[in-house]
Amino acid sequence: MVAALNDEGDIVGMASPDQFIGRAARFADGKVILLSEEVENLENWDLTFVVGIDNQGVIVGNGNLGAYMLIPRGLQHAR
């Protein structure tokens, strides 16, 4: 299920790889990529919902430990 897309054509949303539990994902080149597989040092986080993506590729959403913001490597984002 698509939740958001940006002007660059990046698409994020939810996927259900096991058909029961939704997972935050991005969609590219006809593939579903779980965000949890792209994040280093995820530890105890379970990324379940995506709310949006901006034109720089910053993704925001909700997980089991609260809200999250994923910033692409190399991007200097305002705090």
Ordered list of secondary-structure elements with their pairings:
Elements: E1 2-5, E2 11-15, E3 23-28, E4 31-34, E5 47-53, E6 59-63, E7 66-70
Antiparallel strand pairs: 1-2, 2-3, 3-4, 5-6, 6-7
Explain how this protein is built:
The strands form two sheets. This protein has a four-stranded antiparallel β-sheet with strand order 1-2-3-4, with no helix packed on it. Strands 5-6-7 form a three-stranded antiparallel β-sheet, with no helix packed on it. With 79 residues, the protein is mainly beta. The model has no long low-confidence stretch (mean pLDDT 88). It is globular and about 30 Å long. It is built from no helices and seven strands. It is 0% helix and 46% strand.
Task: Tell me briefly what this model is.
With 79 residues, the chain is an all-beta fold. It is 0% helix and 46% strand. The protein has strands at residues 2-5, 11-15, 23-28, 31-34, 47-53, 59-63, 66-70.
Instruction: State Rg.
Output: 12 Å
SSE order in H/E notation? EEEEEEE
Query: How many strands, what sense, and barrel or not for the largest sheet?
Result: 4 strands, antiparallel
How many strands? 7
Task: Kindly state the percentage of residues in helix.
Answer: under 10%
Q: What is the count of DSSP helices, taking H or I runs of 4+ residues?
A: 0
What percentage of the residues does DSSP assign to strands (E)?
A: over 45%
Strand order in the largest sheet: 1-2-3-4
Quickly give the structural class: mainly beta
- Unreliable spans: none
The CA-CA distance between the termini, in Å, is 30 Å
Q: Characterize the overall form.
A: globular
Mean pLDDT reading: 88
